[in-house]
Design goal:
Blueprint: H1 15-27, E1 30-33, H2 39-53, E2 58-59, H3 68-74, E3 78-81, H4 87-107, E4 113-121, E5 127-130, E6 140-147, E7 160-162, E8 172-174, E9 181-185, E10 191-193, E11 200-208
Antiparallel strand pairs: 1-9, 2-3, 3-4, 4-11, 5-10, 6-9, 6-11, 7-8, 7-10
The chain binds 2-oxoglutaric acid and fe (ii) ion.
Length: 221
């Protein structure tokens, strides 16, 4: 049976927004964005994440070079890679593609592609302190996390803590608020997701260089 081709609304990130992101990455190495995308898109991605988490998400880290038991001490979330098969996934990937091109134009970062997965942290789930990339040992350059939780309250836990180097106290505490996004240099900022006290949904993604080096720290597709 021939599938109908979904009609994708074109999302356009403003040049001003991409300027701001490029500027922050250049000077600080990270940026936190509130109201990143049109709300309808956040809502559709949120609904899709909730729906698919019940049927298709897998414990994070299943894939090559992963030791599941070791992995479970480090992270307990479940994930599903985006493949652009729905209108909202395609719209999200298009937005991130626009950002990739815009950042390359401004910062000559050589970002080659983008991969991302939905994540679900159920009550009690966490992701211990880690780096998404070690210098020279990964092709992940820039990490992005887009959050899909409305009505997130202060004592729901589940914040992302972003650290500067080996510092014990965080540089930034990021609540996983609906339609907000954090972008940071993958090999610069150790970070962790503290234990979530309720269901927490997000899309974690990485802009990558075009090389074949293995990623030793995080599951790759
Ligand atoms: O969900 C978050 O806030 C961060 C997730 C994360 O660090 C990762 O998937 O590598
Ligand atoms: Fe991470």
């Amino acid at each position: 049976m021939k599938m109908a081709t979904p009609v994708t609304e074109n999302i356009c990130l403003s040049e001003q927004l991409i300027d701001n992101i490029a500027d922050a990455l250049q000077h600080h190495g990270y940026i936190q964005l509130i109201d990143f995308l049109p709300a309808w898109l956040g809502t559709q991605l949120q609904q899709e994440a909730i729906r698919l988490s019940a049927i298709s998400f897998k414990p994070a880290g299943i894939g090559r070079q992963n030791d599941l038991q070791l992995n479970a001490q480090i992270r307990t979330d479940s994930t599903l890679w985006l493949d652009g098969h729905s209108v909202q996934q395609e719209a999200y990937l298009q937005s991130m593609e626009q950002l990739r091109v815009g950042l390359n134009r401004r910062l000559f970062m050589g970002l080659f592609d983008f991969e991302c997965h939905f994540s679900h942290y159920a009550e009690g789930d966490f992701y211990r302190r880690h780096l998404d990339a070690f210098k020279g040992r990964s092709n992940r350059i820039l990490s992005t996390v887009f959050y899909l939780n409305d009505n997130w309250r202060k004592n729901d836990g589940g914040e992302l803590l972003l650290y500067a180097d080996e510092q014990p106290s965080p540089l930034l505490v990021v609540p996983p608020l609906f339609n907000s996004c954090i972008i940071f240099l993958s090999d610069v900022f150790p970070h962790e997701v503290i234990t979530s006290h309720c269901d927490r949904y997000s899309i974690a993604g990485w802009y990558r260089l075009n090389n074949n080096s293995q990623d030793h720290l995080d599951p790759s597709q």
